[in-house]
Amino acid sequence: MAEACPAGATIGALLCEGGAVLRAAGVEEARREARLLVGLALARDAGSLNDAAREAVSEEQAARFRALLRRRAAREPFAYIAGRRGFWTLELAVTPAVLVPRPETETLLEAALALRPDRASVHRIVDLGTGSGALLLAALSEYPAAIGLGIDRSPAALEVAHRNAAATGFAARTLFALGDWSSTLAPGSVDLLLCNPPYVPSGEIASLAPEVRDYEPRAALDGGPDGLAAYRAILPDLPRILALGGLAILEVGAGQAEAVAVLGSTSGLVLREMRQDLGGIARSLAFGVAEKGVGAPPTTD
Ligand SMILES: C[S@@+](CC[C@H](N)C(=O)[O-])C[C@H]1O[C@@H](n2cnc3c(N)ncnc32)[C@H](O)[C@@H]1O
Which residue range is the domain that position 124 belongs to? Predict the structure, then answer.
């Protein structure tokens, strides 16, 4: 039965209306999302709104809320509506040009910190398919002696990454370059490589949630017929670009870890670690090289 919302222009009425509209649109956790939208419209902390249900809102605030509500009911991701998303300890700008950074991607940073706990020992970090710059900037926040290079094939994504590097205070240690995976990197030039490539099998994209399917960049999702195309392109080049003792940590989709581990080993890599995310899914694979690399600074020419 439809919920009867309180009459009048109050925070409680907006929360109730938002919950009902989002529920009807098929949004999960409709009430929580409605609270986030009211918080955004009123520029208030969403966590405080349940206690402020009786507070009046102006016509302008109600109109602003309804404009945001229409977008979310059309299944636009909240992060694009808000224009920002938290990742690791950072608050990042996100636009439809970039994937919305996911909590499970933080598994790669946990792996890096576990395998390279000496924060002063990592000097050259590369993030392949940097998108918003999330992984690179979070890694730079943990490795104060490092410089970082983020590579992406999308110029629009690189603009967002640039903006995030400036806003988080890491611009002086960061370089971004347009490129096709690692093809422009010099031999032996990377101490720590991070990569969250597109890994959704092409045929499964149509069945993803509308927020992902209809709004996130296809180039950030589509991993080819079996989801593994990016790994086949990236892994064989890692023995060339990793420095002596270098480490490459890649995100994988659910059920892909074994296949990617095999691709790594046929590329001459040694699997150092497989790590699960908080949902218990094998999410990150860390590879090293058996042979000696050649030391050189990262380059994009
Ligand atoms: C899954 S998103 C990851 C974004 C970000 N690293 C994150 O974890 O939130 C993959 C990114 O790879 C980029 N990409 C796809 N193909 C590429 C290629 N051949 N070379 C470089 N980047 C590529 C996409 O533009 C997208 O930004």
Answer: 84-289
